């Protein structure tokens, strides 16, 4: 947990995750880097903590959060599936 914030209880974490999922679902036009950064910052996680949860290297996560990033589909799916999200392709 980012030390700038008070740790959340389990119930607060669950509510926060639900809010995050709702916000992301309401904004399907967000680019991937914005979604990745939003999840981590809203849950008050450091890159190392997010890496432990997602099993993705901190450097890879940091790159994923950059506007000019080009993550692999596998990395994107790994991050999103950890939080119960999927990639949807629309035409």
Elements, N to C (H/E): HHHHH
Instruction: Please bin the fraction of helical residues.
Output: 55-70%
Q: What is the fourth-level CATH superfamily of the domain at 31-91?
A: lambda repressor-like DNA-binding domains
Mean pLDDT: 90
Q: Which regions contain 5 or more consecutive residues with pLDDT less than 50? A: none
Number of helices: 5
Shape category:
globular
CATH topology of the domain at 31-91: 434 Repressor (Amino-terminal Domain)
Q: Report strand %.
A: under 5%
Major sheet: none
Which structural class matches the secondary elements? Answer: mainly alpha
Amino-to-carboxy terminus distance: 38 Å
Q: What gyration radius follows from the Cα positions, in whole Å?
A: 13 Å
Count of distinct strands: 0
Protein name: HTH cro/C1-type domain-containing protein
Domain HTH cro/C1-type: 37-90
GO molecular function: DNA binding
InterPro entries: Cro/C1-type_HTH, Lambda_DNA-bd_dom_sf
Q: How would you describe this structure to a colleague?
A:
By secondary structure, the protein is an all-alpha fold. Helices cover 58% and strands 0% of the residues. Helix 1 runs antiparallel to helix 2 and helix 3 crosses helix 4. It is globular. GO terms for molecular function: DNA binding. It holds the Pfam family HTH_3. InterPro entries: Cro/C1-type_HTH (IPR001387), Lambda_DNA-bd_dom_sf (IPR010982).
């Amino acid at each position: 947990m980012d030390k700038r914030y008070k740790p959340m209880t389990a119930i607060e974490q669950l509510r926060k995750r639900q809010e995050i999922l709702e916000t992301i679902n309401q904004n399907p036009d967000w680019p991937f880097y914005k979604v990745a950064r939003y999840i981590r910052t809203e849950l008050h996680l450091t890159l190392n903590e997010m890496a432990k949860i997602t099993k993705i290297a901190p450097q890879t996560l940091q790159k994923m959060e950059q506007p000019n990033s080009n993550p692999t589909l596998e990395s994107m799916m790994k991050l999103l599936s950890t939080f119960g999200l999927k990639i949807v392709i629309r035409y």
